[in-house]
Amino acid sequence: MLKHRGFPSRMAGTDFQFTIRRENRKEGPTKLVRRERYRDRKPADKRADAAFVAAIWAVFGEEPFERGNLDAGRLSWVLGREVVPASDPFDPASYEAMLRLDLRRAMASFPEVFAEDAEPVELDEDWGDEE
Question: Which pLDDT score is estimated for 126?
Fold first, then answer.
C-alpha cells in the first residue's frame, strides 16, 4: 500500500480522518462505494468533504493518483462526483486503484476550495519511511 507522504491525515481540529496508518492484511482493502450526499448533511460533514477535496487538489492536482492509504470512507463521499476512476477496469477494493480529481465537478461542488482567497492546505510533515 502506497503511503501518501505529506497528505493531511485528518481535517485540522477534528476527528475526520483522511488517511489510514496501515493496510488491512486480514480482510483486504475496504471497498469504495459511492455514498449519497443529501442536502440535510451536517455542516461539519460538508466542511470535511471540502477539506478532503482541497487536500487532493493541493497534493495531486488533476494528475491520476493511487488510492494507497487514503481513507475509504472519506473517498466514498466524493467518489463518482469529484473523484472518479482514472483506469478501466477499476477495482474499488484495491489499494492500487487509480483515481483522479474531476476538476469541473469539484469546482462546481466546492467553489470555496478553488477561490483565489482560499486558505492554503497545511500538508503533514514527512516523518520518514515508517511503515
Answer: 54
Please tell me whether the peptide bond between 92 and the residue prior to it is cis, using omega within 30 degrees of 0.
no
* The amino acid at 116: E
pTM of the model as a whole: 0.88
Burial zone of 67 (CB within 10 Å; 0-12 exposed, 13-18 middle, 19+ buried) = buried
What was the pLDDT predicted at 128?
A: 45
Number of Cβ within a 10 Å radius of residue 108? 12
- The Cα–Cα gap between 39 and 84 comes to 21
Burial class (CB in 10 A: 0-12, 13-18, 19+), 111: exposed
Q: How many CB atoms lie within 10 A of CB 32?
A: 23
State the pLDDT at residue 103. Answer: 95
CA distance 75 to 112: 19
